[in-house]
């Protein structure tokens, strides 16, 4: 069975990231939220354009990876590129105070679950 993004030639991933396997300075996890700060430019890499387009609303890294059909590691490199150029901002989901102390926002957990199921 051919799985787009997973069974592609390693050369494609090397080309997408310029040979990098992980972001150079930023630590991302699957629930890090990404928000576009600008519109895509005409000469941008198509994966960067897709990220900027889908992140008009806060979007988790795992959701971006699922939509692009790329491994999370490759996706974090692409998001880090956009972060370093100021085209996106990132933040970790905030903890919401629940009746039993600090808990993760249920809506965010459901979005992450949907993203994981899409992988």
From TrEMBL:
Pfam families registered for this protein in UniProt: DUF742
Domain of life: Bacteria
InterPro entries: DUF742
Protein name stated in the entry: DUF742 domain-containing protein
């Amino acid at each position: 069975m051919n799985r787009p993004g997973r069974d592609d030639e390693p050369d494609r991933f090397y080309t997408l990231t310029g040979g990098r396997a992980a972001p150079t300075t930023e630590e991302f996890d699957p629930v890090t939220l990404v928000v576009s700060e600008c519109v895509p430019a005409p000469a941008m890499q198509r994966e960067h354009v897709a990220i900027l387009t889908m992140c008009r609303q806060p979007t988790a890294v795992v959701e971006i990876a699922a939509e692009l059909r790329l491994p999370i590691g490759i996706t974090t490199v692409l998001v880090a590129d956009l972060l370093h150029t100021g085209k996106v901002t990132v933040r970790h989901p905030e903890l919401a105070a629940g009746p039993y102390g600090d808990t993760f926002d249920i809506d965010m957990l459901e979005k992450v679950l949907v993203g994981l199921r899409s992988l």
